[in-house]
Amino acid sequence: MNCALRGLTLWACAAALYGQAQPAQQQAAGLEPDWDIGVILQEMSAHAGRLLPVLDQIDVKAWLQKGASETYAAQLQSSKDQAKAFADGARDLARNPERLSASLELFFRIQGLETMLGSLEDGTRKYQDPALAQTLASLAAENGANRGRFQQYIVNLAAEREQQFQVMDREAQRCRGILTVQPAASPNSGRKK
């Protein structure tokens, strides 16, 4: 009897934990639905794709002949690599946006790319063509609203995950408490005399 009761209690606790984990699939307060943030991520991927042709117009070799630092060449190549990885990462994440680690990685990639674009914009203005620098600046700025929404989504997703883990931990502690309070079954309790 005690073994059956213990098994039933364990099953009830497992069911409670499973039931608590289910709201992750539902709309949490403040967390955008997958399809909404998926659209934002697709737009961000397209934006990164539009950056590449502009970056291809930058001629760092000519800059070096005008006395520019060699770090511009490394920044340009890194920007191209980051833009490609950003486009691919955003497209992949759009399929499953609730991956927190992938979201954070993409966000950090965006920040790094924006920093390098600012430097390349300055170099383009100084060593190549102010109009191309303006094109790069306006293209870099057009992603601002999407980046802001994505950043808020990441914060909300992290908060939701924290809340889920707290609920699961409380339920696990409650179940452990129930199991430890029950008297242990004696070896002869299940046998008939």
How far apart lie the N and C ends?
15 Å
**Main sheet?**
none
CATH topology of the domain at 29-163: Four Helix Bundle (Hemerythrin (Met), subunit A)
Low-confidence sequence ranges: 1-15, 17-28
Number of helices: 7
Morphology: elongated
Tell me the structural class. Answer: mainly alpha
Task: Please bin the fraction of helical residues.
Answer: over 70%
Observed structural traits:
mainly alpha; Four Helix Bundle (Hemerythrin (Met), subunit A)
How would you describe this structure to a colleague?
- This protein is mainly α and 193 residues long.
- It has a domain at 29-163: Four Helix Bundle (Hemerythrin (Met), subunit A).
- It contains seven helices and no strands.
- The protein has helices at 2-21, 34-56, 60-65, 71-95, 100-127, 130-141, 144-181.
- α5 (100-127) runs antiparallel to α7 (144-181).
- The longest helix is centred in the last third of the chain and has 38 residues, at 144-181.
- The model is unreliable at 1-15 and 17-28 (pLDDT under 50).
Précis, in short:
With 193 residues, the protein is mainly alpha-helical. The protein has a domain at 29-163: Four Helix Bundle (Hemerythrin (Met), subunit A) (Up-down Bundle). It contains 7 helices and no strands.
What's the structural blueprint in terms of helices and strands?
Blueprint: H1 2-21, H2 34-56, H3 60-65, H4 71-95, H5 100-127, H6 130-141, H7 144-181
